[in-house]
Amino acid sequence: MGRPKKEAVAELSTVANPGVVIKANARLNLTPNDLEWTDHVLGLLSEDEKIAGNPTTDGLRRIFEQALDCVVIQATSDVVQSPTVDNERRATVTHNLTYILNDGSLPDNLKRRSVTGSADVYWGNCDKVYRNHPVAVAETRAEGRALRRALKLRKVVAAEELAKEVDHIDADSANKINNTQINFFEVFGKRLNINISKLLEKLAINEKNVYNIAYDDAVKVITTLSGYQQSNDIPQDVIGYEDNWK
User: Fold this and answer.
1) Residues 86 and 117 both lie in one domain
2) Does residue 21 carry a pLDDT above 50?
3) pLDDT tens-digit series, residues 168-187
4) How many domains does the chain have?
5) Contacts of 217 (CB under 8 A, 6+ apart)
6) Which pLDDT does position 163 carry in this prediction?
7) Do residues 148 and 104 lie in contact, with contact meaning Cβ atoms separated by under 8 Å?
8) What is the pLDDT of residues 57-76, one digit of tens each?
């Protein structure tokens, strides 16, 4: 008579103490109510789905159905607040996630679950690299929060929720033209042979110092330059690029 087979054992590092390894029975059906649940879920992620130990939203989305043994039937994002000058270009997004558990022991009305996650993003809580895309950042953060809530992860935040390179600038500065927009003026001014100073005057943007131009006015200039490029119909009174427009 052969010896009984041993059940497979997996080694997991705890979130609180990454250097401490615990042994968990890989065949145990862990649930979100178990202390090892968070470690188990994070163990399903690959290393490139974590940033400084925090799971990425992409990673949580990939392993979500596997971890909960469910099927996602709907995932939608709603923009609650769009960025404007009056709200400091703040974007608020809510993500709604609906899924059905593959659990035969539950009645049908308890298999269907829904969670919601929300996030708001503005210049003061967003990495400077992504500051010009507050809606996209808010959407990713909202989805990450919804996934974390559904997975019932403890003491864990999604990597995208952590801002690492935030400039300590005031609201007035955040509402003014940025370097990316200034560079756009210069590149397209040269490419299309447009006099930026004359274009600003034509658009009734009368700031003597280009660095004091309002953000929304800068957007208006960029939209105009893009339109000129597409139509190739440039008014004669703005032709003639000059370097001294800044």
Assistant:
1) yes
2) no
3) 555 555 678 877 788 889 98
4) 2
5) 177, 203, 205, 207
6) 65
7) no
8) 999 999 999 999 999 999 99
Measured between alpha carbons, how far is 94 from 225 in angstroms, rounded to an integer? Answer: 34
Candidates 110, 126, 117; CA nearest to 148 is 117
| 97 inside domain | yes
Q: Report d(CA 243, CA 186) in Å as an integer.
A: 9
> Between helices 134-151 and 57-68, what is the axis angle to 10°?
30
Instruction: Identify the CA nearest to 212 among candidates 188, 177, 179, 246.
Output: 177
Q: 72 and 156 share a domain?
A: yes
For the chain, what percentages of helix, strand and coil (3-state, to nearest 5) are there?
40, 20, 40
In angstroms, the CA 226 to CA 231 distance is: 9
Single residue among 108, 131, 161 that ends a domain in this structure: 161
Residues 97 and 139 sit within 8 Å (Cβ to Cβ): no
> Pick from 122, 22, 131, 144: which is nearest to 77 by CA?
144
Structure tokens at 153: 């992860």
Domain-ending residue, one of 161, 192, 211? 161
User: Is pLDDT of 9 > 50?
Assistant: no
**Contact (Cβ atoms closer than 8 angstroms) between residue 58 and residue 139:** no
Q: Which H or E element spans position 58?
A: helix 57-68
Residue 159 or 196, more confident: 196
